[in-house]
Protein: L-dopachrome isomerase
Amino acid sequence: MPVIHTRTSVAVTDEQREALKTAYGQVIECVPGKSEQWLMCLFDDEVPMSMAGRFEEPCAYVTVDVFARSDVDPGVWQEMTPQICDVLQGVLGIDPARVYIKYGRSADFGWNGMNF
Structure:
């Protein structure tokens, strides 16, 4: 059960949201056993954000959460970071230096009225 939640300070069009969703479907495959089939994407745009004391420049905060009973190799996250930054820069024009990404995993995940 992977989830990618993207918050941006800029407006995101439907076409851009679709491009991000499609790209994230490929990026999530960096995590062993994860695929777009179970990926949930959340998008919040035009969120007031300040980074380095400035509101003026676009920025983004992304969280990636996965269901996993054991730790995820840190190399997986290292592989994902440049891909996510490239997507945000290519689709939304957000400089990778103005992107934070938080990674996490949970051994407890609910779906369809039950927990795994």
